Description:
Layout: H1 2-18, E1 25-28, H2 31-49, E2 52-57, E3 60-65, H3 75-99, E4 108-110, H4 127-143, H5 146-174, H6 176-185
Antiparallel strand pairs: 1-4, 2-3
Helix pairs in contact: 1-3, 2-5, 3-4, 4-5, 5-6
Amino acid sequence: MFAILGVWAAWGVIWVALGLWANRTKVAAPAGRQAPYRLINIVAFACMFVDGVYRPTPHGMRWTPFLPPLWQVPPSLGWLLAVLALGGLALAVSARITLGRLWSAAVTRKEGHRIIDSGPYALVRHPIYTALLMGSAAIAIAKGTPIALAGFALMILGYTLKARLEERFLAEELGQGAYAAYRRRVPMIVPFAPPARN
């Protein structure tokens, strides 16, 4: 668990640093259309990372979940989950570097925006969301608490909603034809899944 949390902490530091490297926003999707996925993702992160409290014991502070875990993860699986989280971090950073100055945390069109279909974007249309879901799966499975697992389910919903909003917005901004061709060629979030038919 500490290794997985360490990967998340490293990702946070790298992400903040990379966030300084972006073009100026030309157009943003209306705030009202972005609010649902933002709210869902805030609740999801809270569920995954705040599913218990530290309590004093005779041997020091101990993490106590609000609800007991549904399973205990053996150390060998725990390390595999840490590798999954690390793979997610690597994919997110690679995708962020591939996007370069076109990246945005919100659904926006940047100056010079165009369809990026190389690197991780040749594998899935939203590799950063794929990466965050990998890291979220690792922490939810490692914790095994109902609250953390509910957080992961909400994370899937939140990033699916954001991806769909982003695709509608970019199709409007960059042209339906070009984006439709990319959608037919490359799956949305799950690698090797059937891509969109229209």
